[in-house]
Amino acid sequence: MLAATWVWAAITFAPPDAPDRSNQLEQPDHSIAGGTLQVSPLGVAVPGFGASDDSRVFNRAVTAGYRWGFSVGIALEPVEHLLISVNAGLSQSIWIFDNDAPEFELCFANDCYATSERGLGQLLRIGPELRVGWTSRWWMAWALGGAHVGLSRVRFYCDTSLQARCDDPRQTDVGAGLSGGLGLAIRPLPRFAIGLESAVVHTWLDRRDDPFQAARAWELGLITVIGF
Question: At the top level of its lineage, which domain of life is listed (predicted)?
Answer without folding.
Answer: Bacteria
